[in-house]
Amino acid sequence: MESRPFAEQRLVCFPHAGGSPYFFRGWGKALSEFEPHAVCYPGRAERIAESPATDLKKMARQIATALGPSMESRPTAFFGHSMGAIVAYETACALEDDGIATAHLFASGARAPHLMRGDAAAAAGWDDESIARSLIELGGTDAELLRNPAFLELVMPYIGADFRMLSAYSAGERAPLGCAVTALVGTSDPRVAPEQADAWRESTRGSFRRVSLPGDHFYLAADPPYAVIREASLG
C-alpha cells in the first residue's frame, strides 16, 4: 500500500486464516487519514515460495521485529480479522515487551485470546474436507472455487497450515496490553458470540469497547468498519 508520510497514523491490517493482503486492497483509498499497510503471511501472494508458518506466536514475533523500527515515528493501530486478530494481539504483545506501544487494537471476528485452548489433536484433524466445510460455513470463499482442483492445489497448503496453527494456539499467561481495544463482531457470526467478543476486555488495561455490526463472520467484506476505525483512532 502507498506511503503517506503526512498521515496522522499508520494502520496495519492482519488477514484471516487463508487470507492475504489483497483482502484489504480497498482500505487505503477509503481511509485517507491513515497510512495503511497489510501483513502478508508466509506461503501466499508475494511470499508464495516460502513455507507457511506453523507457530502463531513465532510468526507474530517476526512481524513485530519487522514493524518495530517504523512504529516510533507516529502512532500505529492494528486491525486483525479472525485469525488476524490473534496475530495482531500477539504482535502487539511482542512489541510491548520491547517497549513499543501499539496505539489501538481492533479485534474483528475473533474470540478473546484467553478463550483459545490449544489442542494438538484438533489441529491435526483439519484435513482438506473439514477445512472446505468450514470455509463455506463462514462465507469467506465461493463454494464453486472449492470444487476447482487447480485452486485447491494452490491455496490449500497455506489455508490448512493457518487452520492448524490457530487450533494449536494458546495465549498463556501474560499482563494485559496497555493499548485500547475495540472488539468487532457480526451479529450473525456463527463462530463468535457477543460474550466471546466482550471477553477481549480482559486483554487490556486500557479502554475497551465492543461493536456489533450487521452480517456474518465476513461482515466486513461488504461493509468495512471504516467509521468505527476513524472514531476510535482519531476521535
Account of the 3D structure:
By secondary structure, this protein is an alpha/beta fold. The protein has one domain (9-234): Alpha/Beta hydrolase fold, catalytic domain (Rossmann fold), CATH 3.40.50. 36% of the residues lie in helices and 15% in strands. The protein has nine helices and six strands. A six-stranded parallel sheet has the order 2-1-3-4-5-6, sandwiched between helices. Strand 1, helix 1 and strand 2 (34-38) form a beta-alpha-beta unit. The longest helix has 19 residues, at 149-167.
Concise account of the structure shown:
With 235 residues, the protein is α/β, with parallel strands linked by helices. Helices cover 36% and strands 15% of the residues.
Which secondary structure elements does this structure contain, and how are they paired or packed?
Layout: E1 9-14, H1 27-30, E2 34-38, H2 56-67, E3 76-81, H3 83-97, E4 104-108, H4 120-124, H5 128-138, H6 149-167, E5 180-186, H7 194-198, E6 208-213, H8 219-222, H9 226-234
Parallel strand pairs: 1-2, 1-3, 3-4, 4-5, 5-6
Helix pairs in contact: 2-3
